[in-house]
Design a protein that fits this description.
Layout (H helix, E strand, L loop, with lengths): L1 E3 L2 E3 L7 E5 L9 E5 L8 E7 L2 E8 L8 E5 L11 E7 L4 E12 L2 E10 L5 E7 L4 E4 L2 E2 L12 E6 L5 E12 L1
Antiparallel strand pairs: 1-2, 3-15, 4-7, 5-6, 6-15, 7-14, 8-11, 8-15, 9-10, 9-14, 10-12, 12-13
């Protein structure tokens, strides 16, 4: 029996499978930064892969109704069927971030993202586990009642900061897996 967020689950143990190891990123993988400048904000987020890690850094600004920065790996195809959670090894700055997954699902023609937040410990490497059933559907940050996440059709993996605290941020990711 496994525990997810303090809730016991009768789901069988599933071995961990690494999806993204930044020592050897998947062929054709492309991480891009998407920041609130797309809607008039002034946040500056950057993403790079260096020394076997993804580095997501920048400056979060609340000016002009802004307040988010994100790093996304697009145009991928992952099948999370049979897995129950995403597992990441991260080193952050003590701020809260979000894991975001996207499928082919849309709401009124706009892509749906499935999001869950996680805390970091400043300067320390930690393992973060996020149950797939805890990911909530959103469109541009607005919660939706559905559709449910289809784990067989993941097309984008991303990280986002939108904690309403202006200032510098820094998150490193060593690997992303499912189990």
């Amino acid at each position: 029996m496994r525990k997810f967020g303090g809730v016991k689950s009768e789901q069988p143990e599933t071995p961990m499978q690494t999806l993204i190891d930044f020592q050897t990123p998947p062929s054709g993988s492309r991480w891009v930064a998407v920041n609130d400048v797309v809607m008039g904000g002034e946040s500056l987020g950057h993403v790079e892969i260096a020394e076997g890690k993804l580095r997501f850094t920048g400056l979060l600004s609340l000016a002009n109704n802004g307040g988010f920065a994100s790093a996304r790996m697009r145009d991928q195809r992952f099948d999370f069927s049979g897995f129950h959670q995403v597992v990441m090894r991260v080193r952050g700055d003590g701020r809260r971030y979000q894991l975001r997954l996207a499928t082919v699902a849309t709401h009124r023609g706009i892509a749906v993202s499935y999001a869950a937040s996680f805390a970091t410990t400043a300067g320390e490497w930690i393992i973060v586990r996020i149950a797939l059933d805890s990911l909530a559907p959103t469109v541009r940050g607005t919660p939706l009642d559905g559709p449910s996440l289809d784990p067989s059709s993941i097309r984008e993996v991303g990280l986002l900061i939108a904690d309403k605290l202006a200032g510098n941020f820094s998150l490193e990711v060593e690997w992303i897996a499912v189990e």
